[in-house]
Specification:
By secondary structure, the protein is mostly helical. It folds into 2 domains: 81 residues, no CATH class; 46 residues, no CATH class. Helix 3 crosses helix 4. The longest helix is centred in the last third of the chain and has 16 residues.
């Protein structure tokens, strides 16, 4: 028998991903339709994997927390609104883990920035990582 109701983490991902997807900011075209669609669980999970930005983060948070499913509700919550799972993620490991997913999206600047900041984004130097993240985002905190 097919499960027509998404699991809580999958439903949560669909709910959070829908607004930016509807505006064209992330994920595959039309993925916002998955929220409340009643489609089988496997359909929501397959669409979630197509979110080139969110999916790598979900995988890293899940792996760091020792959770097998990146769509576990705790992992999805950590990504979209934050929770204690984020305290376990090493900033340097996050940057290194995300590099393959984003290397081609921003061009040479991203790769140069990655090389400069990956060694600085360590738990012992969180302020250096924050400073570099702000400079990457345009030089201001706001």
């Amino acid at each position: 028998m097919t499960n027509l109701t998404p699991e809580p983490g999958q439903a949560l991902f669909a709910r959070y991903a829908s607004p930016p997807n509807e505006l064209g900011y992330c994920g595959p075209v039309g993925a916002f339709d998955m929220a409340g669609s009643g489609e089988p669980t496997s359909g929501v999970a397959a669409r979630a994997r197509q979110f080139a930005g969110a999916w790598p983060y979900l995988e890293i948070v899940a792996a760091t927390a020792g959770i097998d499913d990146p769509l576990d509700h705790r992992v999805v919550e950590a990504y979209w609104v934050g929770n204690d799972l984020l305290d376990r993620v090493d900033p340097g490991a996050l940057v290194t883990g995300l590099a393959p997913s984003f290397a081609d999206q921003v061009g040479g600047f991203w790769q140069v920035h990655l090389r400069r900041t990956s060694s600085r984004c360590q738990p012992s130097n969180v302020s250096g990582c924050t400073k570099n993240r702000m400079s990457f985002a345009g030089g201001s905190a706001g």
